[in-house]
Design goal:
Length: 306
């Protein structure tokens, strides 16, 4: 049977819709583009073209993978975040639009400064730190850190993919242990830590359960990493600097209390596009006049090897 590219797209969309996949239009297009090695423009320009049987088989194979519960991001091997492309594997948390709120908050902070040295802790794909460095309007260097070596390899690939090697580097780091002295100090630390309570992981959507448990499990109450990072990394933040967390649904009040107890000030909460409290931010207070610090500050080394 001879079919056009558009026929194949409609078949995939119908199958995804019947399976209850949200965003079936976008996913169907992405699967067809993947099978045909086309970009979005190529898809629309070739929709009336007839396709070969081998192409049809590949489209069906990818569709079957999606219907079996494999996340679309893992099938494609890449996903967009903050308008940038990011390599995605089963070793990393899939970048999600909710996390763009963390980038928004971080940009609002760094764009008011002359220069910034930032740390993206629990970086995964590196999407937060890379997007921050890419769109900052001021001078910035960013260190991406994670305990997972496979995740760091993905992050390093994403630094190269987005051509950010001059301002972004990667390093191994355990967020539950004291900040390594070699890291120096930072003006900003962003962190999207594991925050799912251990007992709830088995109840998550099957697609989410395919993501690495290391990136999901936040301990008994989901707050282990918030306590650890506040304890272990506050001393690595310069006076007037900030710590910004992404938080899970309903966790913002508890995280705010953890940050206050650790000595952070000016606690602020940022909502995502669904009006959910998604980011909690606190600053390190000054112990001497701010003007004196700004006059005498010198920047530290910008990169740390893995």
């Amino acid at each position: 049977m001879v079919i056009t590219l558009n026929d194949a797209f409609l078949d995939v969309r119908k199958a995804l819709r019947q399976h209850g996949v949200s965003g079936c239009d976008v996913e169907a297009r992405e699967l067809v583009c993947k099978a045909m090695n086309l970009d979005e423009n190529g898809f629309y320009s070739k929709r009336r073209d007839y396709i070969f049987e081998d192409n049809v088989k590949e489209i069906r194979r990818l569709t079957d993978l999606r219907l079996s519960g494999v996340p679309i991001q893992h099938i494609l091997g890449q996903w967009e975040f903050y308008g940038l492309p990011f390599k995605v594997t089963t070793d990393t948390l899939i970048p999600r639009s909710d996390t763009e709120t963390l980038v928004d908050a971080a940009l609002a902070f760094v764009n008011g400064r002359t220069r910034t040295r930032a740390l993206d802790l629990c970086c995964g794909t590196g999407c937060v730190g890379i997007a921050l460095a890419r769109f900052a309007r001021s001078t910035i260097t960013c260190l991406l850190a994670d305990i997972s070596m496979p995740a760091l390899r993905v992050a390093k690939d994403n630094v190269a993919l987005n051509r950010m090697t001059r301002s972004v580097n990667v390093a191994t780091c355990d967020a539950k242990k004291p900040c390594p002295d070699i890291f120096g100090s930072f003006d900003l630390i962003t962190c999207n830590p594991p925050y799912i309570p251990t007992a709830e992981i088995g109840t998550l959507d099957p697609e989410v359960q395919r993501e690495p448990a290391l990136a999901l499990d936040g301990g008994e109450d989901g707050l282990d990493f918030y306590r650890a990072v506040c304890k272990n990394f506050k001393s690595a933040i310069r006076e007037g600097g900030a710590l910004m967390f992404e938080v899970g649904l309903g966790q913002y009040e508890q995280v705010r209390e953890i940050m206050l107890a650790a000595g952070f000030e000016d606690i602020a909460v940022f909502r995502d596009l669904s009006a959910i409290e998604r980011v909690v931010c606190g600053t390190v207070p000054y112990t001497i006049p701010k003007e004196t610090i700004e006059e005498n500050r010198t920047d530290v080394a910008n990169s740390v090897p893995v």
